[in-house]
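pasting for ref
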Amino acid sequence: MARRGWVGFALALSALEASAQEWPAYGGNAAGTRHSAAAQITPTNVGELEEAWRFRTGELGEGFANQENLTFEATPILVGDTLYFSTAFGKVFAVDARTGQQRWRYDAQINPAIDYAETASRGVSYWRDAQVDATPGPAPHPALRATPSPPGGARGECLERIFFGTLDARLIALDAATGKPCNGFGDKGAINLRKGVRSVEPGEYTITSPPAIVGDVIVSGSAIGDNGATNLELGVVRGFDARTGRQLWAWDPMPRAAMLPKDAANANFGEIDEQRAQWTGGANAWTVLSADVERDLVFVPTGAPSPDFYGGARPGDTRFANSLVALRASTGRIVWGRQLVHHDLWDYDIASQPLLIDLERDGKKIPAVVQPTKHGQVFVLHRETGAALFPIHERAVPKSDIEGERASTTQPFSSLPSLVPNGPVTEADAWGFTAWDRNSCKEKMRGLRSEGLFTPPSLRGTIMRPGYAGGSNWGSASFDPARQRVIFNVMDLPMVVAMVPRAEFEAQRDSEAYEDYDFSRQRGTPYGMRRGLLASSLGVPCTAPPWGKLIALDLAKGSIAWSQPLGTTRDLAPWPMWNIRGVPNIGGSITTASGLIFIGATTDNFLRAFRTDDGTELWKARLPAGGQATPMTYVRGGRQYVVIAAGGHGGLETTPGDYVIAFALPASAPAE
């Protein structure tokens, strides 16, 4: 080989080794693909994995008003030899990546007496100042722009920053080396995100996902308590200067007349009452955003306008709600948008982080974005234009029978296979452990409306399948680029949603007949709402398992490569009913270059490894608490680690805890 060839090979190998070692963002990278080039752990030796270390945060929600809903959904990020992660109630930790020893801890001191709409924090983000290039330390992330720091700053302080959001809606910047707030950012290291989004009810406007980093711009969405009223907080997405915290731009998914620029980009909102649009809230981006730094794009998945289940007070499609929107990261202007649910009546927020991938087709690589959805559809779009790379068809869907509601007559369906069934749920689908159990499900189904996907809510109750928790939720998916496969963990649970006339709301809410349902007032509309799991008298879902699956979608063929039940009922049902496979799950998967998938997520307390080629389960390790988080992996000291937060999930009622656990091959084991 010529000298130039050897040099090129060496550089490529060095780059591959470096990429195998890192996990610098929540989704593995800014693109959210959750894939690692690490290959020390293989399908052959994965069975030898053992616990390498464990760390305990000490946070179990003591003293907080809604500790019963505590979750630990964080995925750590790796910078240098340090892991950084957050907990639900505003703590951030830095620990040694090889030993799990704590380096520092920060407490945001959020008010424990507030009943927060959601108690979650999925992680933190990392930014490095360009002037660090001249100082010792790990090489900067290649995506960062070479923009100078403002004069007068103390060199060496806060040149590397950890950004995270809190339940009381602050965006905080910490010095990555010390954990101390960066005083030059905002007000003594924090920005109050409650400003500029209308009146905020305590605990109803929160930040639960890490911000996106696009060069020197920090982009944050928000989480808003659903269904309380029509005039909830605004779902505005904002960009901030990473050094000073100065707001650079704001984008509101709702077409408020006073805020609309008079240009063609905003011409396709459909039927809209501008006066009502002034006070309709929500449509917020609460999940994780993705970034294409080279193209100066940030990809924003948005949710439903308020309230979720009744749209009579928000007529029209409200085009950028329930959409995937590409914004120019430097300015916040819309590049393109694609609505994936029209006039949402089902809480089908676009909840999954978009995956920015290179789609291989006819020997070429196409810049694409993959967007999973709660309703089980998978959309693949051109990253630069939003054009469908697999056809999307508008299909007729059932009509609403609620007075005042104007449901969309059609909905977009992907030509890729659905991850869940789309047909109606009938008495023939009733399932149970016993005949008595099964008959109780049949009796409940008898009076409910079910005409397949997108059947609107009704007064008598409508069966939603999948329910508002997914399909695919915030755990999103992972992408193996060599195999061109996207890996999804999917929930397939039947839910019931009903509209409740205002005059009947109190009586229904206080009735023992609906003690297992959630109720919400939906102020500003003629109806309240109730919703819950369609379950038998024993609390078992009324449709047959699997209720949770791991699915591999082959993008080269446009078909499902394999589907496997995910998890067992071990921690969901008493023995001897542990052998049912395919249980509810929340979290996400990761893939590695060696052909492995790692995932926790299930209601049984295990971390598992599957073979990417055929879905065979190869290994599992018992966790001390629920693993409702997405794992991550990295290489340090010649050893590959797989790390997961195990702290349980209040919504799934899994075992609570405060653990971060690392697995690795035995230290003496030779690398393959």
